[in-house]
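Ticket #4471: structure export looks truncated?
Reporter: QA, pipeline team
Priority: medium

Steps to reproduce: submit the single chain below to the structure queue and open the exported record.
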Amino acid sequence: MKKIIRAAILMLTLLSANTAFACLMACRPGETETRQVIDHLIAKRFDPSFDVLSLETKRTADFDMIVGEIRGYEIFFKASVKFPKGANLDCAPDAPRRATDCSEDRYFSLIRDTRPVPGRQFIEPGGVRTFDEDLRFAELKGAWRGPDGEYYKP
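Actual output as written to the record:
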């Protein structure tokens, strides 16, 4: 019994003394970090006025970046987003002075430039778009760097 107690005390000491060691298995980005990244990317790419109607994590995966030198974590998600005011209204097909950096592409993405023609995309007021994508996080500086360039500590 004393051996079990000593082993437990040793494990607790190691875990509390070394956060990185304690987080080897459990401290990965989750739904909170996914939602924060999605919020940042939507506001940057489309419009700061939006409502996330649903967000579902479909699966997650660990992976190595740069041949084992940097640990990565990928979250596959599906989000439905409503744009009450629309987005990029100056890219509307019938806009009087349509911006030159607009795209007609119907592929909507938060993390990649639109395909095949990059540019800002028009979303009509009240429009709903579904984003079925993945977010890749890289473990750097004791935190996880998201695709929005921000650092997260789950």
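Status: closed, not a bug. The export was complete when the record was re-opened. Leaving a note from the reviewer for reference: The mean pLDDT is 84.
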